[in-house]
Design brief:
The chain is α+β, with helices and mostly antiparallel strands and 165 residues long. The protein has one domain. Helices cover 59% and strands 16% of the residues. The chain is built from 5 helices and 4 strands, in the order H-H-E-E-H-H-E-E-H. A 4-stranded antiparallel β-sheet has the order 1-2-3-4. Helix 3 runs antiparallel to helix 4 and helix 4 runs antiparallel to helix 5. The chain is globular. The chain starts with a helix and ends in an 8-residue tail after the last helix. It is an enzyme of class 3 (hydrolase). One of its GO terms (cellular component) is plasma membrane. Belongs to the peptidase A8 family. Its main location: membrane.
Length: 165
C-alpha cells in the first residue's frame, strides 16, 4: 500500500510536470504569443497573459524587489506546506497539499524563468449581448484550487481527529 506522503509527492510531481509541459508547448510549440487569442469553444479561449502579480494580478507593479519578496514568501510557504504534508494522516489532505505544492512550484518556476507567471486559459459566457470573463489562469492555478477544495472537503467531511482527553 502506498503511504499518504508518497501520494502527495506524486500529486505534486504530476501537477508540476503537466503545468510546465503545457506552458512550454503553448509558448514554444503552439506559439500562442504569435497567434493571439485562439477560440476553442464558445465559452473557452486560449490567450497568453503574463501575470507579474499574485492571484488576480494583485501587486503586479512591485518591480524586481517585489518579485524577489514574493518568490521568497512562496518558498517559505512551500516548505511549510511540505512539512504539513509530511505530517498529514489522510490521503485526501496529503494529495490536496501535494497539488498545492506542485502548482506553487510551477508558478514559481515561471517567475524565475520569465519574470511572470504564464497564464493562458480563459473561460467566458455571453449573456444578453455582454461578455463576462473569468480571470486568465493556468494548470498550476487549477491544481492549487483543487488542492484547497480537497483540504476543505477533508476538514469538513473527513475522519474526525481523535479528541484529547
Amino acid at each position: 500500500m502506498t503511504s499518504p506522503v508518497r501520494l502527495g509527492i506524486l500529486a505534486a510531481v504530476i501537477a508540476l510536470v503537466l503545468d510546465q509541459a503545457t506552458k512550454m508547448w503553448l509558448l514554444f510549440g503552439f506559439e500562442l504569443a504569435r497567434k493571439g487569442l485562439v477560440s476553442i469553444t464558445p465559452f473557452f479561449d486560449l490567450v497568453l497573459a503574463w501575470n507579474t502579480g499574485i492571484s488576480y494580478g494583485w501587486f503586479s507593479d512591485q518591480g524586481p524587489v517585489g518579485q524577489a519578496v514574493m518568490l521568497a514568501f512562496k518558498a517559505v510557504a512551500i516548505v511549510v506546506l511540505a512539512i504539513w504534508m509530511s505530517r498529514s494522516t489522510t490521503r485526501l489532505a496529503t494529495i490536496g497539499l501535494g497539488l498545492i505544492i506542485g502548482g506553487a512550484v510551477g508558478n514559481a518556476i515561471d517567475r524565475v524563468a520569465y519574470g511572470a507567471v504564464v497564464d493562458f486559459a480563459l473561460f467566458h459566457v455571453q449573456i444578453a449581448g455582454k461578455t463576462y470573463s473569468w480571470y486568465v489562469f493556468n494548470l498550476a492555478d487549477a491544481a492549487i484550487v483543487v488542492g484547497v477544495a480537497a483540504l476543505l472537503y477533508d476538514s469538513f467531511f473527513g475522519v474526525p481527529a481523535a479528541k484529547a482527553p
